[in-house]
Amino acid sequence: MAGNSTEPKHYAILLFEGFQALDVFGPLDALNITSLDNGIKLSIIAPTLNPVSTKPPPLPIVNLKPGWGFSESVVPTHSYDDLPTDIDVLIVPGGLGTSHCANIEPTVKLARKLYPEVKYLFSICTGSKVLAEAGLLDGKKATTNKRRYEETTRPYPQVQWQRSARWVIDGNIWTSSGISAGTDAMLAFIGMVYGREYAQAIAKRMEYRWVEDPTDDPFAAPEPSSTRGPESAYASPTSHVDLGSEGK
């Protein structure tokens, strides 16, 4: 596919300890396939050049079972102190690592620094917390992981949080809902750049059922109720879930 000078060419992703695997690998695999036809490149940026794990560091809010160690690690191409140049699209994933501001403080500072230099800012899941903490979502519409909606959004009332949205676009900032929604949003971004039919072809090559409508949100966050107690983001995945009625 022939490109043009306005197409984003350089994608970069900011990693931190405890990122969510699918937040990263879902959107990146859509870009992997896109790169077969287009001249795009990727930079993986982390605090250091050491491998970055999906396992979060010890955090008071994260109650991991003793011996828990199922995780993956990614080798970065750049560090926060040695950045690539000419980034067009900056991607920020979420994950358990966003649960403590101290863990993501360097990422917050870097996102704030880089935003004026990029064409697009793209967050997945609780990656929107990084953007909100950086002040980049002030006055803007945005969304986030719906299972962790209340804890993520409550500290940032200046953001126009959307309870029901698979992803949200406000200016040059894209924010997606939880985990798998990042792949839907990235396919929509690819569609914006290269056309809807091309994005549909990418989804087909992935054998992925793309949710094209950003308002189609089966996991929409319910309105808060004074009679409903807070739900722990780290409870069992099946807690508070009727397995007989859940579709996905």
Contiguous helical run count:
6
Shape: globular
Strand content: 5-15%
**Helix and strand pattern:** EHEEEEEHEHEHEEEHH
Assembly annotation: single chain
CATH superfamily: Class I glutamine amidotransferase (GATase) domain
Main sheet makeup: 7 strands, mixed
Share of helical residues: 25-40%
Tell me the domain tally: 1
**CATH level 3 topology:** Rossmann fold
In terms of per-residue confidence, which ranges show pLDDT below 50 for 5 or more consecutive residues? 226-248
Give Rg in angstroms. 18 Å
Q: Given this structure, which CATH class is correct?
A: Alpha Beta
- Which strand order do you get reading across the main beta sheet? 5-2-1-6-7-11-10
Beta strands, count: 11
What structural class do the secondary elements suggest?
Answer: alpha/beta
Straight-line distance between termini: 35 Å
Topology diagram in text:
Layout: E1 10-14, H1 21-34, E2 41-46, E3 52-53, E4 73-74, E5 78-79, E6 89-92, H2 101-114, E7 120-123, H3 127-133, E8 141-142, H4 149-153, E9 160-161, E10 167-170, E11 173-176, H5 181-194, H6 196-205
Parallel strand pairs: 1-2, 1-6, 2-5, 6-7, 7-11, 8-9
Antiparallel strand pairs: 3-4, 10-11
Helix pairs in contact: 1-5, 5-6
